[in-house]
Backbone:
């Protein structure tokens, strides 16, 4: 019989306040084969781990149970410790008596009884555990970065600078993302383009970066270290390999298409480069608006292009690439004005959103940086900025704080004052949140020196009255309702995930939270990793973020990728499924239920086989197998039965 | 003629009997009959603002259960408060199993009248929200259809400029009522256009009239009603159109007080939507209960008849 040791953790008072840990150790210690049982205040601490190592040697233990928190937290910690003491790591199991017991109960007596049973069940499981060796797989040292905004750009550059190859996929014709649309950035007021475009150029020129714009990820398969991706490059109808980017075609195109980059304040042709600093600086033809595609006529661009780069017969291309890690930097959108019915539902012309105001402020924008309102081009003298337009509004809109609006609205009002000296900006706010280096000082400068009127309260309604836009709000500091007849209203609309993010989540098999933002593996300790290994998160796709934070997270994600690539081979958990060749009847049901493509049919032997590198040990096949041929290592049917018996108080 | 189960509620039997009468008249002109429930009780009226979460839903649940037990699956009501109460009760019963069980426990303990027992020999079944509650205007929009209404107009209200007034409880809370977007509704606008009249757009259409403050703090209602009415008039409205008896009270009978507090205020007629519907469908002006209005409506009504004669 195996010599088993049991270590019960107090987790400070997290477990010990609800569960009588001494009693748990005492009761479990009475089980046959349990030769040592004790409790300790912090088992994961250095002395705690030392205790486990010491007792493995002293008591000559064959197996160990640590009764503590979830195995998600410290299973690998204790298995490493067991390995150091000479015990096979798969002979150590965690009994979760925190998340599944002490945290969710209050009756001490019953919780203690439950904890005892949880530990006993793990003892029964461990009796039949086999010693396993980790599965070792090779790594493809090339990364895929999805999204070419500032986060994707930073991640790609950091990985590429470390000497690894990167594929950067961006669905728009140019990289740059929302940051390319911004005028100046808080709190230092650097020009956004000036700090972004050098990085864009660096991406375009980097020898280790394969830039694929106007492209989307179509499919991904494989596992950490060994992914296969299919990337679809949309037909640009321009042969970029010979196009010099001279821009002649864009000048002759007679079509007029609203520029989404300029938030519809300007138009470009059907053949266009989204903005002058685009990388790559090559045009694409918007098929939907192109006169040639609609009528078969025109073709002015084709006639103008001396080198013959216009190719109306071009088709979408699909590329296959092998990569070892994926950084998801899919970016964000803002809540459409049409959703904000109380603020005119997008039908009031002089109610615009923050990104549109950025375009008005931008020196390279549609008005060359002059503030002119959309309805009649007049310079607005009274401008109302509305924060939390759709944020912090669980009843009608989004429950969360969009985080960036307090700062950018302050910046907007301040820049507006710099352009229109006799203009009066008002800011409606719920709270001013300035958690960032230099942010509070920036806000104070705006409030005290720049003549901006801050009104603490929500805006109830916005409507048009003649040439004016009327704002009804409340000032909760004076308790009075406020009516402002404004020339222009700027809404700080909620930051939301891109529509395409939900699709991407399904394609990559990663997770998103309740509001659609990408889910991290742990909110505090693993903020740049996805729960699925090999996927890393960067930028506002994971939650509202400003530029410094996006850049920091992108650097973090890049470091994780680099650290993965620095290993020779990857070790994977060997507790996977296996097939008893003598029992398998070849029905193939297991192949159809496997979510990871880890099972194949061996035609020669007429049985199902497991690709151990792909198997995640989810157990679907074990449940589906009709003849019991498939078992999961260290979680066999017999082990499960014994665990159930122990859980029910038997034996 | 199609019979539609109808819950009038208290106001329509007393102060707002002209809403009831004009609604019945308009419905019959459109080919359906408002079939009043038998032995109905008060709907409870204030559950939306009460803290008690179960007891106050029993009266409205009883009405809904009796409707179902009489073999009907649709209940139409007109008063915005009754609509709000019945619809929200139904919503709670559908969504919240504990509330459903508790309410049915209360209902089961009530001693039913003997003849009612004999009439319904079927065994007890819990009320689970089977009945669909509809506002009459919702019925017109979704069942009759505004296009169909437009076809049947015998006296289109052409040239009349009407200001829609929604009040508070007809649309809120959105997730429980679901009739229209409370911040940007269009159901009354559609109704006005179906009558051939013109919609006056003004910002106060969804603002509060003061509601029950009319009782405890009438000055507030006076001030709020003044804002609504003067805004509508300022945008050129000939009249205000609404469906809620309490809103009607505040906006119509309060105009005398408004004129005292705000000199220069010019009275503006207020109509129930059913009155204008009845007139547009060829209804008799004497059957609309205009004598119960505080503000003289004869100018607008005359113009409706004059317009018809001109054609």
Residues:
């Amino acid at each position: 019989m195996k010599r088993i040791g049991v270590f019960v953790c107090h987790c400070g008072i997290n477990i010990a306040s609800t569960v009588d840990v001494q009693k748990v150790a005492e009761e479990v210690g009475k089980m046959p084969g349990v030769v040592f049982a004790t409790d300790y205040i912090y088992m994961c601490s250095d002395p705690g781990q030392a205790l486990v190592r010491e007792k493995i040697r002293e008591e000559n233990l064959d197996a160990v149970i640590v009764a503590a928190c979830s195995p998600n937290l410290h299973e690998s910690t204790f298995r490493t410790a067991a390995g150091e003491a000479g015990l096979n790591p798969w002979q150590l199991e965690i009994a979760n008596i925190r998340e599944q017991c002490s945290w969710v109960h209050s009756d001490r007596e019953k919780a203690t009884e439950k904890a005892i049973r949880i530990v006993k069940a793990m003892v029964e499981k461990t009796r039949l555990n086999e010693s396993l060796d980790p599965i070792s797989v090779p790594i493809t040292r090339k990364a895929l970065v999805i999204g070419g905004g500032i986060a994707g750009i930073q991640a790609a550059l950091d990985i590429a600078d470390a000497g690894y190859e990167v594929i950067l996929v961006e669905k728009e014709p140019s990289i740059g993302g929302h940051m390319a649309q911004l005028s100046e950035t808080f709190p230092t007021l650097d020009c956004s383009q000036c700090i972004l475009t050098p990085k864009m150029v660096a991406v375009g020129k980097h020898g280790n970066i394969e830039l694929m714009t106007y492209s989307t990820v179509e499919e991904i398969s494989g596992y950490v270290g060994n992914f296969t991706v299919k990337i679809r490059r949309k037909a640009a109808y321009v042969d970029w390999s010979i196009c010099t980017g001279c821009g002649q075609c864009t000048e002759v195109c007679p079509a007029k298409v609203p520029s989404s980059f300029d938030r519809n304040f300007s138009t470009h042709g059907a053949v266009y480069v989204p903005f002058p600093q685009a990388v790559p600086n090559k045009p694409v033809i918007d098929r939907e608006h192109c006169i040639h595609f609609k009528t078969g006529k025109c073709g002015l661009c084709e006639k103008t292009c001396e080198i013959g780069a216009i190719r109306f017969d071009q088709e979408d291309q699909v590329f296959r690439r092998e990569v070892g890690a994926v950084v998801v930097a899919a970016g964000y959108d803002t809540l459409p004005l049409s959703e904000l019915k109380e603020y005119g539902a997008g039908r009031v012309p002089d109610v615009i959103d923050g990104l549109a105001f950025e375009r008005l402020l931008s020196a390279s924008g549609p008005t060359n940086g002059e503030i002119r309102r959309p309805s009649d081009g007049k310079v607005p003298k009274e401008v109302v900025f509305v924060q939390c337009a759709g944020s912090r509004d669980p009843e009608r809109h989004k429950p969360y704080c969009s985080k960036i609006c307090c700062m950018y609205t302050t910046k907007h009002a301040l820049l507006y004052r710099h352009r229109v000296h006799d203009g009066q900006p008002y800011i409606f706010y719920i709270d001013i949140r300035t958690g960032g280096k230099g942010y509070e000082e920036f806000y104070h400068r705006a409030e005290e020196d720049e003549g901006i009127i801050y009104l603490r309260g929500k805006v109830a309604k916005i409507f048009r009255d003649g040439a004016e836009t009327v704002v009804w709000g409340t000032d909760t500091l004076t308790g009075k309702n406020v009516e402002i007849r404004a020339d222009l209203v700027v809404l700080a609309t909620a930051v939301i995930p891109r529509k395409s993010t939900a699709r991407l989540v399904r394609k990559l098999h990663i997770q998103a939270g309740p509001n659609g933002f990408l889910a991290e593996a742990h909110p505090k300790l693993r903020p740049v990793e996805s729960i699925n290994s090999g996927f890393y998160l960067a930028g506002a796709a994971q939650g509202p973020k400003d530029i410094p934070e996006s850049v920091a997270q992108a650097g973090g994600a890049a470091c994780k990728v680099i650290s993965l690539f620095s290993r020779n081979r990857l070790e994977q958990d060997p507790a996977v499924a296996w097939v008893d060749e003598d029992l398998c009847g070849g029905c193939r049901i297991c192949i159809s239920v496997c979510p990871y493509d880890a099972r194949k049919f061996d035609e020669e032997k007429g049985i199902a086989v497991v690709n151990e590198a792909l198997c995640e040990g989810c157990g679907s096949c074990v449940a589906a197998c009709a003849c019991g041929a498939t078992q999961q290592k260290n979680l066999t049917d017999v082990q499960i039965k014994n665990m159930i018996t122990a859980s029910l108080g038997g034996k | 003629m199609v019979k539609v189960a109808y819950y009038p509620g208290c106001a329509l039997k007393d102060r707002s009997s002209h809403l009831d009468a004009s609604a019945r008249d308009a419905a019959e002109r459109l080919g359906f009959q408002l079939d009043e429930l038998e032995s109905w009780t008060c709907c409870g009226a204030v559950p939306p603002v009460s803290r008690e979460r179960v007891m106050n839903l029993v009266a409205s649940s009883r009405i809904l259960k009796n409707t179902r037990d009489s073999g009907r699956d649709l209940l139409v009501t007109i008063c915005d408060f009754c609509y709000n109460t019945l619809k929200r009760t139904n919503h709670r019963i559908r969504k919240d199993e504990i509330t459903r069980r508790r309410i049915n426990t209360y209902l089961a303990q009530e001693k039913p009248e003997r003849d009612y027992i004999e009439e319904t020999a079927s065994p007890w079944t819990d009320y689970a929200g089977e009945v669909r509650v509809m506002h009459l205007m919702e019925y017109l929009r979704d069942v009759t259809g505004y296009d169909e209404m437009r076809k049947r107009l015998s006296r289109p209200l052409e040239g009349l400029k009407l200001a829609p007034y929604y009040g508070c409880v007809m649309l809120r809370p959105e997730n429980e009522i679901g009739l229209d977007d409370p911040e940007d509704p269009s159901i009354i606008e559609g109704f006005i256009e179906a009558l051939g009249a013109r919609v006056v757009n003004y910002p106060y259409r969804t603002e509060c009239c003061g509601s029950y403050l009319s009782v405890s703090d009438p000055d507030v209602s006076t001030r709020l009603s003044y804002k609504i009415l003067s805004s509508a008039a300022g945008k050129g409205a000939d009249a205000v159109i609404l469906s809620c008896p309490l809103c009607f009270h505040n906006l119509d009978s309060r105009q005398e007080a408004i004129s005292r507090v705000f000199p220069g205020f010019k009275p503006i007629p207020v109509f129930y939507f059913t009155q204008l519907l009845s007139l547009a469908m060829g209804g008799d002006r004497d059957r609309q209960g205009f004598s119960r209005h505080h503000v003289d409506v004869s100018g607008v009504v005359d113009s409706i008849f004059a317009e018809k004669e001109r054609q």
